[in-house]
Amino acid sequence: MRLVVEPAVAPLTGRYTAPGDKSISHRLAILAGLADGDSVVSGYLDSADTRATLAAMASLGAVVTEDQGELRIRGGRLGPPDAALDLGNSGTGVRLLAGALAGHPQLFDHSVRLVGDESLSRRPMDRIIDPLRRMGGRIDDRDGCLPMVLSPAPLHAIRYRPPVASAQVKSAVLLAGLWADGETIVVEPGPSRDHTERLLPAFGVEVSRRGEEIGLVGGQTLRPGRFHVPGDLSSAAFAAAAGLMVPGSSIELDNVGLNPSRDGVLRILEAMHGRVDRHAGTAVGNEPVGSLGVRASRLQGVEIPPAWVPLAIDEFPVIMALAAVAEGRTIISGAAELRVKESDRLAVMCRQLARLGVAVHETADGAEIQGGRVRGGVVDSCGDHRIAMSLAVLGLVAEAPVRIENAEWIQTSYPGFVDDLSALGAVLRWEEEE
Ligand code: S3P
Questions:
Q1: Quick one: 306 and 411 in the same domain?
Q2: Is there an atom of ligand 1 within 6 Å of 89 CB?
Q3: What's the domain count of the chain?
Q4: 313 in ligand 1 pocket by Cβ < 6 Å?
């Protein structure tokens, strides 16, 4: 499907509520499925990715029911699935699940096949296969990619320093550590989102943190409970970007997760002279949550410190869209990880921006973008939800309509995107592609 975005003729205004956090939703589906008994989860993100993880847990024997927007997940009795677990487009789903299952005692003597769509089947899995094998995990793979077949087996603890700052790798190793003999320690090469470490204690699992070392002793029992998923800053970032760009706009964003390991985008927006006021609210579980006040701003280009990259890893497509209309040049470096996301986000975003007349230069680990005017035209999401949404936001300040092909991928993380932006005054409509 093609999404057509009309240039905004009036400011965006109103209140916006962020949808549930994708990272936290995946983790809750998995942890509740491991915990023995009934957990209740409210605010779970309803998207293709998070449904895939929930469906995988159901195929493994978790009983998932929904009642008035709350999920009830009966976990603790896992068994081999009848068919391959298809995680669709979800890197988080497949990597965390592989960790959680690699040493799961209820699956010993069985095997579990993990598959995904075309994009996920190209993404690197060796980053989790390597540490899981060091723990004794038995995994067959196709040259470091999916499909993967796990033959769950007893694991031993390791001390592991991942070569990249990745929450998915850290989480896969920690989840495998739940079943390992001894204390599994992950030494973080740099900070990455810490939702797993924050959630495990809520399931009764003791996690230690000493500087950059995170440790967990195997053999602990997970307790079910009642959980709420806070809003996703990564989704709210699109509405915030729209509010910053469209002249005269003023938006209040509620229910926004403000975990400091995720707030790189806010630091970057502030460095670009974006007027974003943060208001701390009541924490949800161990997660800080608040609201944001966003006002249209004269954005300035910025040189983004490489140390901020992992803290804003999913927001680079929308940051690149903002850079396209900022005054001056934006320089991104140290961001090679963007090449192994749902698409090669550096290459794809640079190509699409160039199609809209933006002066961009792709580098090995980043990009340089000269802000200026943005033409209308036809662009392509290349199967990447965040590229589709970033280009849609940019369309609001283009000189003519922007048509985004393959925009249906937005369903991956944010099915309510078009409705939410429309409620703020944006004009977007779906069109069949011939
Ligand atoms: C995620 C971690 C990030 C991020 C992804 C979600 C998570 O990936 O890009 O969208 O929930 O742990 P990496 O940890 O591989 O950087």
A1: yes
A2: no
A3: 2
A4: yes
